Fold this sequence. Notes:
- The complex is a heterodimer.
- Chain A is mainly beta.
- Chain A is 0% helix and 54% strand.
- In chain A, strands 2, 4, 5, 9, 10 and 11 form a six-stranded mixed beta sheet that branches.
- By secondary structure, chain B is an all-beta fold.
- Helix content of chain B is 0%, strand content 50%.
- Chain B contains no helices and eleven strands.
- Chain B has strands at residues 4-7, 10-13, 19-25, 31-37, 43-51, 54-57, 64-66, 76-78, 87-94, 103-104, 108-112.
- In chain B, the strands form two sheets. In chain B, strands 2, 4, 5, 6, 9, 10 and 11 form a seven-stranded mixed beta sheet that branches.
- In chain B, strand 5 and strand 6 (54-57) form a beta hairpin.
Amino acid sequence: QKEVEQNSGPLSVPEGAIASLNCTYSDRVSQSFFWYRQYSGKSPELIMSIYSNGDKEDGRFTAQLNKASQYVSLLIRDSQPSDSATYLCAVNKAGGGNKLTFGTGTQLKVEL
Amino acid sequence: DGGITQSPKYLFRKEGQNVTLSCEQNLNHDAMYWYRQDPGQGLRLIYYSQIVNDFQKGDIAEGYSVSREKKESFPLTVTSAQKNPTAFYLCASNQGTTNEKLFFGSGTQLSVL
C-alpha cells in the first residue's frame, strides 16, 4: 500500500463545474496535509494546507480532512481552464522530521 | 526577491559522468530538500538537511550525494552509480518546523546523452 494515494486521472470537468480531487493516506499519525498545483514542466505551488478535521475554504478552493477515514480532498468551485494542472497531495508524517510524502498526483482538465 | 534558485535549468549527462545540480536559497531557511520527479509521478525524497553540516538520506538516496557546507546552499551530485538519472529534480526549503509548507525552486531537468 502506498503511503499517499491519488487517482492519476485525467479528471475532466466542464468550465464552471466543481472539481473534486481525493487523496488517501496510510499513516494514522499523519498530522499536516497539503495540496500543491503543478503545471507541466514547472515546480509545485501550494494551494491549500489543512491540519484539523473539517473544511477549510480559501476563495474557490476548499480542503476537507477526515482523519478517522484517512482521506483529504480538494474541491475547486467554478473551475476555469487555468485550473488545468496536476494536483499533488502531500502528507507530513508525525516523527518524520518534517518531511513531506507526496502522492503521484491527479491530472485535472477543465474543458471549455 | 527572496527565493530558491536552481541551476542549470537543463543538464545533460554522459555515461559514467558525475554531474552536480545547484540549489541556493536566500530565505534564511534551516532545512533544505531534494526531490526527484519522473513523468506522471509524484515527488520522491532523495536527501534532506535540517541544519548546516548535517544531512540524511531520503527514500531514494542511492547513486546521489549532497553537501551542506553553507546554510544557503545544498548541491546535489548525481553520480555514475545512478543508472537511471533522467528526471526532473526539485530543490525545496523551509524552516524545518512542524507542519510547515515547502518552498520550491524552479527545477532542473536532467537527461542522459
